[in-house]
Amino acid sequence: MINYREILRLNSLGYSQRRIEASVHSSHQTVKNVLEKASAQGISWPLEDDITNAILGEMLSDRNTRTNSPYAEPDFAYIHKELSKKGVTLTLLWQEYCEKCRTNGQQPYMSTQFGDKYRRWARVTKATMRITHKPGDAMQVDWAGETIPYYDTVTGEEYKAYLFVAALPCSCYIYTEACGDMKQENWLLCHVHAYEYFGGVARLLIPDNLKTGVIANTRYETRLNESYRELAEYYGTAVVPARVRKPQDKSIVEKSAGFSTTWITAAMRERKFFSLAEVKAAVAERLEIINTMPFQKRPGNRREAYLNEEKEFMLPLPRVPYEPAVWKQATVRNDYLVSDGQNKYSVPFDLIGEQVQIRLTKNTVEVFFKGDRVASHQRIATFQTQPVVKPEHMPEKHRRYLRYNADDFRAWAKTVGDSTETVMDHFLKSGSSPEQGYKNCVTLMKLGEKNGKEKLEYACERMLELSSVPSIRTIAVILKNGKEPERKTTFPADSEKYGITRGAAYFKKGGDRNA
Question: Which of 170, 368, 391, 447 could form a disulfide with 133 if both were Cys (CB 3.0 to 4.6 A apart)?
Fold first, then answer.
């Protein structure tokens, strides 16, 4: 029997045909035919151990001389090419093969034999990748295990850069990016950059079960993180997480992550970086080297395979890149404010005590309650002490407080009286700015509304008699005592010209005072 395996092995080692003939004890024509047919069908060494000489003999034998088989041999190369097209399956191709056989008066293989023969052919010719992974069908994503160190130029402190990896299983085309952390915002941004790098979107998105993407993945349900679901919806792709503890579900990205570790992390082990930007630039350079590196077992490289076999099957990119959004939950407190982690923003006051969802992007803060958007703010990049509050979110009393100003306070006090005006002016001038006295001014107005302007004027007058530094607490106490203001006694206008009306005798010692 011809030793097909040994002929292919020796040929891969560069042996001459004459030496191969001598080694395997086969004729010149036999070795020549084996090598020519193997080359024509794309069969090359190394082969898997279970690819026997019998299997190779069946594949490399001349189909035109097979007069003992009543079945028509399928054109496996054609089948393989058609399978790469969107929507084409082995079942469809078998039906077309059967119709062609009936037209030519030939007998077709049954569907099971048809599939087995094709899979064997694809396995021997190393074409199995196209069986499992159709072009444009999936993008697998993960974080690489190794990190890249970089250092602070002043303190020398060491930081870590994490490597994101995305891979297209059909062409093995990959995208890598260095990030300062593995948090959700970087996770989402890396997806956006990967789609931009590929120039298209795969039909499926296959991540691991990390919490930044998948909340739960059980036999009964798959619950995605809201931010991740939103990204997939925006790009028109479907997230299908790998099964828990089943790395083979995303084997290509697992291999690509290991490949990236070797050709990026290990290749740059002698370089010292002093910023994350330097790491990012170096990773981008190494990425181009990886994608243009020739394949070991087939012609071309990753980029050529992608451009020639896969790019046309990718979904188109949206006109505007997705802006990553991070979702979080919060309970609205009594100040009707929510936080983005740095600054505070208002929501309608009637949501106090309710649980809301906060959607954070780079430029906006949106708040949702039961699926409806109830508030939207422009996000502030730097920290500020004062919250961002919209008047329409405030209760009426708080809105009225916002409308107050120093001139309005003074104008109101003038309608009450001089003492009230003096007290009000003191409150406005007592601090470094008028706003610091607004609280006392508002309280003084409320006291006037509750007790009446006349009583308030009296209380302010008494306050000024007691102290040159008015206190709102003291004015409130005076009003609480309920003492009515003393009314001044009026005399006839001509009484003053007489002076003292009692005579001198009245004041004379020992005089009769009743006189």
Answer: 170
